[in-house]
Design brief:
heterotrimer, A mainly alpha, B alpha+beta, C mainly alpha, B: Rossmann fold, six-stranded mixed beta sheet, C: mainly alpha, MetI-like fold
């Protein structure tokens, strides 16, 4: 076995990466439970009080409610818009299809900052920035293309003959969608929804650019809390970060029950 | 159960173009109510295109389809009311056998009691009573095929379209389902258009054969007509005339032609005017291995022998190098010199 | 066969099939389904982008339409952001892609604990930038666990790994690696393993198989992975503020764009920087994708 050293190196590097990762997460979790912790190996006492204080001081219940509302709205709207679009793109060849494909790819390929700043400008112009509607609109920009991109292969793998068969049985377009396609697409829609949910809860830039004081999601208020640290103890920020990560982890565990981990990232077939 | 009969379905110059390729070059065909018509040809001949145009699943590039004088090619498939059986069955994977079969009826808002009665009848007709609550994935290929057929015929459609329905089954099951389809046609009298590339299947099932090649109709006729009197070399080749011997025509009258092959004179029948150089088409089973000299005989050397039970399939070669396919009951071995005789009416001379 | 239809007949045959001819071009009622999607992408993506583009040519103070761009490049502090961003984004993306190849290779096939290990590698996605930043500050900080071990191992002074370039790079690796790894894994599992087995029966060694079979089939996927990793790293914003040195060493383009637009309220200049960001990113991706067109991009024989 010649490849031995490479194998050992790979595992070694992986273990080193993992140890650091555990250290990084461990440091935050430890600190969130620390009475105080300065220049020692471990804190000099443990307490759970920071969670309660963070929950009250940062009004986390409100923030979580906003986060939840935004995420659900984004999921529902992006599925309603994205699935029909994906269907038309998967099933038809029409003039201008290439252009439309590129337009649906760009919001995923572009860093959110590049279109987020002009988008925020436009939203300010129409007095939508700062409101929940503005945050939802901004988050839809990458979410709809994401649904289109994940659903297209799902739809492509449904045999067109099945639709033809339904037509030959007398089903019209509405009946084909509700009776044949929808039941077959449920797993795909579920997967896409969960992925959009995870991405929206984690989406920082777009929400940060468009949110006002009452429309902040958890990531943004976490960032604000950290930037304005010094006023409140570090442990409170850390416990909030742990709450955020905990909820993301929960979402991820749910997501992994329904989707293959490789689907968590976009599977681009041919972006060129 | 009996379909709503129509008198005549008319395909009028139906054309279909895919990009640069012409899949169907102006097809004219009349189908009478109650008929079993087979569209026969190799892949790419346009037979499936014709079927899909008839179903409404493919738009026409030109032409017109009328049903008893009423124009139907502008109707979407769901408004035409035809039944269709697909090559890969296209069963709805998320529905049980019963729901698959009843799907068309529920689309037509059939009252519950009638729906139950008709689904029961269709399921019984294709002998799937035991499996009616299973899902397609739990069924064998043959059973799935029965579901697809039941789904198409439960609506008692004026026309049933079948797109190579047996090609995904193994040989034994194919024979069984072939008989089944013929039995259903005889008992229900549903007008059927059946697409296949298998000449044996077409001959066994159809009342009328339509042989297609490169989007053009070559011959329309009863199985006997097409089998015994193919109109050209192409149809002959498709009907099992495996030997196409290149010959020189030495004399011809209205019915017969005298040709020279491998230095020997042969007499055959012709169905079209032939030029000097032509081919003589002969089926492998029409050769007889003989010992004495005589009319219409060829001398050949045996090269390969395949054992097929009662018969042998033999490949032999003439002195000029032409290869012959022969089926015979005589026991031969490679290297044997043989003499083959073929009756005059079984030699077809084509240009 | 019937005689050829007369000219009039023929014309009526052609004219009546207009619906068919449209359907031929793929134009039928199904396309109505595209309307919501198309309206959405035009309204929320194309329009704002074009609006930003024209805004960037209307400098706050009026005058030369290119003034914003001239200002950006003539001011060394802002011009340097391009270089700073590339210096962070390119190595981070490259590292993430290269590191995922050997690991994805180990994850092929079935073995015990594969699912657990995959999950473990994916977990960093949930961390979010803030927890990562807090963790990096605490763990790699001067009195953090890492430096304690570092000094215990005999170093003279703690390594400076936060509030500078390295802190941001670590953060980009932690958040970006799972994405790169998952993409690489999905591309790799799309390659039919029997191709390698076939090469083995023809006498190719492990290394030869990797070089001549797997790599050429994987390369186009790696190009895409690199592009996506780069996009992710290029838009670095929160971590550059929190674990970097946002006024100096890690003053990246997105910080410049954000501060100009929303802190100084100069939307025109902010848009100009955003447009430049898009341009730089498109150039890098363009170069990679052009290189990709020189590769074999057909089927890889797998089920993926």
């Amino acid at each position: 076995m010649k490849a031995r050293p490479i194998v050992w190196l790979t595992w070694g590097a992986l273990i080193f990466f993992m140890l650091n990762l555990v250290g990084i997460v461990g440091a935050v979790v430890t600190n969130s439970f620390a009475e105080s912790w300065f220049g020692t190996w471990l804190p000099n006492g443990y307490t759970g009080k920071w969670y309660g204080e963070a929950w009250r001081d940062y009004r986390l219940l409100d923030v979580l409610a906003v986060t939840f509302q935004v995420a659900i709205a984004v999921v529902v709207i992006s599925v309603l818009i994205g699935v029909p679009t994906a269907y038309a793109l998967a099933r038809r060849n029409f003039p201008g299809k290439k252009l439309l494909n590129v337009l649906f790819l760009l919001p995923i390929l572009m860093p959110p900052m590049t279109y987020g700043i002009p988008l925020a400008t436009v939203l300010y112009k129409f007095h939508l920035a700062g409101s929940m509607a503005g945050v939802i609109a901004a988050n839809l920009v990458p979410a709809v293309p994401f649904v289109v991109l994940t659903m297209t292969p799902f739809i492509e793998q449904i045999d067109t003959k099945i639709e033809s068969a339904a037509r030959m049985c007398g089903a019209n377009t509405v009946a084909i969608f509700t009776r044949v396609l929808a039941p077959l697409l449920v797993p795909g829609i579920l997967a896409a929804s969960i992925l959009v949910l995870v991405r929206t809860v984690g989406m920082f830039e777009l929400t940060f650019l468009t949110a006002g004081p009452t429309s902040q999601t958890l990531v943004v208020s976490l960032y604000e809390a950290m930037s304005s640290a010094g006023i409140r103890p570090q442990q409170m920020v850390d416990s909030m970060a742990v709450i955020y990560t905990g909820s993301m982890l929960l979402l991820l565990v749910i997501a992994l029950r329904f989707v293959n981990p490789t689907q968590l990232v976009t599977r681009l077939k041919d972006p060129a | 159960m009996a379909g709503q009969r129509f008198a005549e379905l008319h395909l009028d110059h139906v054309r279909r173009v895919f990009g640069d390729t012409v899949a169907l070059k102006g097809m004219d065909l009349t189908i009478k109510g109650g008929e079993f018509v087979a569209l026969l040809g190799p892949s790419g001949c346009g037979k499936s295109t014709a079927l899909n145009c008839l179903a409404g699943l493919l738009p026409l590039t030109g032409g017109r389809i009328t049903l008893d004088g009423r124009r139907i090619d502008d109707l979407p498939p769901e408004k035409r009311g035809f039944g269709m059986v697909f090559q890969n069955y296209a069963l709805f994977p998320h529905m049980s056998v019963r729901r698959n079969v009843g799907f068309g009826l529920s689309m037509r808002k059939t009252p519950r009691a009638e729906l139950t009665r008709r689904v029961d009848e269709a399921v019984r007709l294709v002998q799937l009573e035991e499996h009616q609550h299973k899902f397609p994935a739990q069924l064998s290929g043959g059973q799935q095929q029965r579901v697809a057929i039941a789904r198409a015929i439960v609506l008692e459609p004026p026309l049933v379209l079948m797109d190579e329905p047996l090609s995904n089954l193994d040989a034994a099951l194919r024979l069984e389902m072939r008989t089944e389809i013929r039995r259903l046609h005889q008992s229900l009298g549903l007008t059927t258009v059946y697409v296949t590339h298998d000449q044996e299947e077409a001959l066994a099932l159809a009342d009328r054969l339509v042989v297609l090649r490169l989007g053009e109709v070559q011959q329309v006729g009863s199985p006997e007509e097409v089998y015994a009197h193919p109109v050209n070399r192409y149809v002959a080749g498709f009907m099992g005339y495996r030997n196409m011997i290149p010959v020189t025509v030495t004399a011809q009258d209205d019915e017969r032609a005298t040709v020279r092959a491998d230095g020997v004179e042969l007499v055959g029948v012709k169905s079209e005017e032939v030029a000097d150089s032509a081919v003589a088409a002969v089926r492998p089973e029409d050769f007889a291995v003989v010992t004495e000299a005589g009319e219409n005989t060829l001398d050949a050397t045996v090269e390969i022998v395949e054992y097929h039970g009662r018969e042998q399939a033999v490949e032999a070669r003439l002195r000029d190098g032409t290869q012959l396919h022969v089926r015979t009951n005589s026991r031969l071995a490679p290297g044997d010199a043989i003499r083959l005789r073929v009756p005059v009416e079984r030699v077809l001379v084509f240009s | 066969m019937t005689a050829l239809p007369s000219l009039r007949d023929q014309r009526s045959l052609e004219r009546a099939s207009l619906k068919h001819r449209l359907a031929e071009k793929g134009v039928d009622r199904v396309l109505w389904l595209l309307v919501p999607g198309a309206v959405f992408v035009v309204l929320l993506f194309v329009y704002p982008f074009l609006y930003g583009l024209q805004l960037s040519f209307q400098p706050k103070g009026g005058g030369n339409p290119f003034q914003n761009y001239i200002t950006f490049f003539s001011d060394e502090y802002s011009a340097e952001t391009v270089w700073i961003t590339l210096r962070l984004g390119l190595p981070a993306a490259l590292f993430n892609v290269l590191a995922s190849i050997p690991i994805a290779f180990r994850m092929r096939g079935r073995f015990r604990g594969k699912r657990a290990l995959t999950t473990l590698l994916v977990v960093p996605i949930t961390l979010g930038t803030v927890l990562t930043a807090e963790g990096l500050l605490a763990f790699f900080g001067p009195t953090g666990w890492f430096n304690r071990i570092w000094i215990a191992l005999g170093a003279d002074e703690p390594a400076k790994l936060t509030h500078n370039y390295w802190g941001v790079l670590f953060s980009l690796v932690i958040t970006g690696f799972p994405f790169a790894f998952l993409l690489t894994l999905s591309y790799l599992s799309g390659i039919d393993p029997t191709l390698e087995q076939a090469a083995a029966t023809l006498g190719a060694s492990k290394r030869q198989r990797f070089r001549t079979i797997t790599m050429p089939l994987l390369a186009p996927g790696l190009a895409v992975t690199f592009c996506l990793s780069f996009v992710l790293a290029f838009s670095v914003f929160p971590s550059a503020v929190m674990v970097g040195n946002p006024a100096g060493e890690t003053h990246v383009m997105s910080i410049a764009a954000y501060e100009t637009a929303l802190r100084d309220n100069d939307f025109a200049m902010g848009s100009a920087i955003a447009m430049l960001m898009a341009l730089v990113m498109l150039i890098v991706i363009g170069v990679v994708l052009i290189w990709r067109t020189t590769l074999y991009r057909g089927a890889t024989g797998g089920k993926g």
